Amino acid sequence: MDFVPITKEGYERLKKELERLQREERPRVIKAIEEARGHGDLSENAEYEAAKERQALVEAQINDLCDKLSRCRIIEDFDRSEDRVTFGCTVVVEDVDTGATERYRLVGPYEAQVERGSISITSPIGKALLGREVGDEVEVKTPKGIRRLEILSVEWNHNGK
């Protein structure tokens, strides 16, 4: 079985979410099912059906997180190069065509959150940047077309973000 790289913070976030689902959501759903059963005929009980659907969703989320956590390998020994883009670093790039700068932290696929500035090393941009150095220019095929990015800096002061 192949492993999926993850930061310690990312692993802890997944683990915390699993615990929340198991300790809070699952009991809440079970209680909702019990209450709905008390309302009589289950064949026409919309509350019961909704609670059962929610239960299926929560169980699917729990199973998914258990599967993800079993595949993860925490990577802590980062190659903290000042010039080379590696797993766990934050890289600042400039779009050569627009001049816009963006900041990305390269993380594993289970913890990537583009809206929070972290991208997966398996994403098109992540793959293109990984192993490259400050000053390198990369071309990335994205859904919006080819993007040309210049690597401006590599940082390690992400503070777990």
List the helices and strands and how they pair.
Layout: E1 4-6, H1 8-37, H2 46-71, E2 72-74, E3 90-95, E4 101-107, E5 118-120, H3 124-129, E6 137-142, E7 145-155
Parallel strand pairs: 1-2, 4-5
Antiparallel strand pairs: 3-4, 3-7, 6-7
Could you walk me through the main structural features you see in this protein, from its secondary elements to its overall organization?
One of its GO terms (molecular function) is DNA binding. This is Transcription elongation factor GreA. Residues 4-74 form the Transcription elongation factor GreA/GreB N-terminal domain. It is a single chain. The chain is elongated, with a radius of gyration of 21 Å. Helix 1 runs antiparallel to helix 2 (46-71). The protein has 161 residues and is an alpha/beta fold. The strands form two sheets. Strands 5-4-3-7-6 form a five-stranded mixed sheet. It folds into two domains: 4-74, Transcription elongation factor, GreA/GreB, N-terminal domain (Helix Hairpins, Orthogonal Bundle), CATH 1.10.287.180; 90-155, Transcription elongation factor, GreA/GreB, C-terminal domain (Chitinase A, domain 3). 39% of the residues lie in helices and 24% in strands.
Pick out the low-confidence regions: none
Assigned CATH superfamily of the largest domain: Transcription elongation factor, GreA/GreB, N-terminal domain
Tally of helical runs: 3
Domain count: 2
The string of secondary-structure elements, in order, is EHHEEEEHEE
Sheet with most strands: 5 strands, mixed
> Tell me, what's the shape?
elongated
Give me the CATH fold name of the largest domain. Helix Hairpins
Mean pLDDT over all positions: 91
Total strand segments: 7
**Could you give the order of strands across the largest sheet?**
5-4-3-7-6
Helix content: 25-40%
Just give the CATH class of the largest domain.
Mainly Alpha
Beta-strand residue fraction: 15-25%
Distance between the termini: 29 Å
Class by alpha and beta content:
alpha/beta
Radius of gyration: 21 Å
Which architecture name of the largest domain does CATH use? Orthogonal Bundle
